[in-house]
From TrEMBL, chains A, B:
One of its GO terms (biological process) is threonine biosynthetic process. Keywords: Amino-acid biosynthesis, Metal-binding, Methionine biosynthesis, NAD, NADP, Oxidoreductase, Sodium, Threonine biosynthesis. This is Homoserine dehydrogenase. Belongs to the homoserine dehydrogenase family.
């Protein structure tokens, strides 16, 4: 910080980077009034200096040499919005090594290497903030770290991936197939050409690793988040859910019972009365349940140029305020609780099952007897002939609370039964306790 | 702060005070891990030392002498949860004068005298936090001050009074009358014996004064918030709203167009698709629209022992962290924008009108001609005979955007018209732009 001016080094000039340039340029007066210093962009790192840009900036600001940011003593803060693991990780480590504060929107990096990066930041008395990495424009990390600092959180449920929420919303509202909506989402820019990371739930799993680390004060690793995507979801599943009063959503669930923790992402039948059930389109929302506060929900845009840039620049304001007070890197709380993960017989939920069985008398009785042996009992059952007839019936069941282990067992057992033709689908059920 | 121990002086041992005692006592380990110091209750001020309490505390902690808190050098922080203007205001001023930090849940006081108290806190390098004063368990003040520090907020809409939301929800869902639901709310403890402050909108107006001050960076006075309550709301209004796709809610609206501001509280016809329309019962929610972030919403419990105490103790955690860093009273941003309030011809909205008119030909034509002269045009009209017949018709109209001044004029004009028997109701309409 020289002459009451803060210079930032911006790494990446894609969607979010462009938003940061717009906000820092356009909100000069507000930033000055709130921090007492001028904030300006000192240099911008890009891969290709000759690429056409969405916004025009002075050409001498642009470089393809990271060290013109990392080793420039005039640059106080690095804003990393390039994404991906490498070279972003090496650049951030070097920035911290050089005593520069870092703001990042990089969920992949924070989910995989957050602990290492935060440790380095603490060693160097540097700030490392990453509000934009989860649920774009929603200030949910601040809410967990500060707003609920006095409470003990027991459950976090999130719609934290806009692409999949858009696809499921369209499938629910318009009756379209997964494949058709995915194509449409790709043409609108809501889904990438290779949509795997979104539709298979990995993107949501990264965000749940970050949210559960902050919410439960444990260091949650990405590979400890069990993960299933939406590519197998069918129109039939959605319709049967609706008939029973449920909306199918890709939900990240982090749950704590005493000191035992589970974190997962999966398509989930959500009771319509749950606040998350009406979060539609590309919107994100995070539902937080605290022992003292009870039910809360935070709703907003999960992505996009300006919403994500808002989170980045708000983090930047905090960095600058901390610089003025000389307290960077000193407000962070490292995970302090021992991590105990639930085994499959400790993860309890209700389940939605859809089976095709032979349509003859006694089948339902045999089935429920089998399930009772595994201590799985039923809350609701619908049975009717399949559309194509042929002596088959479709069974839709919602179980009472069952352990994940029991459900796995019973599914194995059912597959062996001669009168069960096919197990069509299995979903976790939430919001109907 | 002595020997790594922080002592707080608690003023008030009602609902919220009891919650604070429970949280501080029950969450010792978490508070210590997050702040690095022990936090304990040093003394509790009560009005009547002999009153029966919900929770037992050591009797030597309890006093009816405020100076045993205010002038005790061992007490670092005052937590004020007694409510009301005096003596709370004098106590807080004296606490700040003595260099003690203050956390308060007192919306009445902050709405009326917040500027004076915050000025004193800044002079004395003391923290004065009041998250609990608006929407109990929802960390909305932090979101406005920190989460959206980089953005320019243009609209805040809030369901910030649980009592009135409970009453309107019950009236909507069960068809009960205002009077019956109010009685029920009183018997359940959701409404006070004298419900005026809640049902006439004053409580919500106080919260909107606080929210708009923080959101727009201007010093908003309580008497600049125009305010109308729900005591005149009828079952007919709710039903006609539902027929047109609207839910009637008591909504606080703070809106900025360029640098012109309006803040009001009134029963409002809210389009069902708006995120606030499905916030029911005693829950609160605050909808925030920012130029960059777009639509966000924060949902949770607006009151109650533990939710409100969560906000108080989370503020306390921030105070303690600031004490450790030696930066109390230095993070606050005073209002820095010039306040320009809209006049009535600058406040634009759609309106819902319900009239009883004579049921004869040409009435609607004359009415709409009259309205067109005032530049009020109609988006929707329903006309039908009144239930009791007698040559009268009921007209339900939703206007296009009109100024508040035009609407006032036209209502005066309509009253003069011989064929208009009665103006039954007028509501602002939101969420259908």
């Amino acid at each position: 910080m020289k002459d009451h001016k803060i210079k930032l080094g911006l790494m990446g000039m894609g969607t979010v980077g462009t938003g940061v340039i717009r906000l820092v340029g356009g909100h000069q007066e507000d930033l000055f009034k709130q921090t007492g210093v001028e904030v300006e962009i000192g240099r911008i790192l890009v891969q290709d200096r000759n690429k056409e840009r969405l916004i025009s900036v002075a050409s001498d600001l642009i470089t393809d040499d990271p060290y013109r940011l990392l080793h420039d003593p005039d640059i106080d803060v690095i804003v990393e919005v390039m994404g991906g693991i490498e070279p972003a990780k090496s650049y951030i480590l070097e920035a911290l090594e050089q005593g520069k504060h870092v703001v990042t929107a990089n969920k992949d990096l924070m989910a995989l290497h957050g602990a290492e990066l935060l440790k380095k930041a603490a060693e160097k008395n540097c700030d490392l903030f990453y509000e934009a990495s989860v649920a774009g424009g929603i200030p949910i990390l601040r809410a967990l770290v500060e707003g609920f600092s006095s409470d003990r959180i027991t459950k976090i449920m999130g719609i934290v991936n806009g692409t999949t929420n858009y696809i499921l919303t369209k499938m629910s509202q318009e009756g379209a197939s997964y494949e058709d909506v995915l194509k449409e989402a790709q043409s609108l820019g809501y889904a990438e050409a290779d949509p795997t990371s979104d539709v298979e739930g990995l993107d949501a799993a990264r965000k749940m690793a970050i949210l559960s680390t902050l919410g439960f004060h444990v260091g949650m690793n990405l590979d400890e988040v069990s993960c299933k995507g939406i590519s197998q979801v069918t129109q039939e599943d959605i319709l049967y859910g609706q008939r029973l009063g449920y909306t199918l959503k890709l939900i990240g669930i982090a749950k704590r019972d005493d000191d035992l923790i589970e974190v997962s992402v999966q398509p989930t039948m959500l009771k319509n009365s749950h606040p998350l059930a009406s979060v539609n389109g590309v919107f994100n929302a995070v539902y937080v349940y605290g022992e003292a506060v009870g039910e809360t929900m935070f709703y907003g845009p999960g992505a996009g140029e300006l919403p994500t840039a808002t989170a980045v620049v708000s983090d930047l304001v905090t960095v600058v305020k901390n610089m003025k007070l000389g307290v960077n890197g000193r407000g962070m709380v490292a995970p302090y609780k021992e991590k105990k993960l639930k085994s499959d017989d400790e993860v309890w939920a209700k389940y939605f099952l859809r089976l095709i069985v032979e349509d003859k008398s006694g089948v339902l009785a045999q089935l429920t007897t089998k399930m009772a042996e595994e201590k799985v009992s039923l809350e609701q059952v619908i049975q009717h002939p399949t559309k194509d007839g042929k002596d088959k019936a479709e069974l839709i069941m919602i179980t009472h609370l069952s352990s994940k282990k029991s459900i796995s067992h019973i599914l194995n057992e059912l597959e062996q039964l001669e009168f069960v033709s096919e197990i069509k689908s299995v979903y976790r059920v939430e919001g109907s306790e």
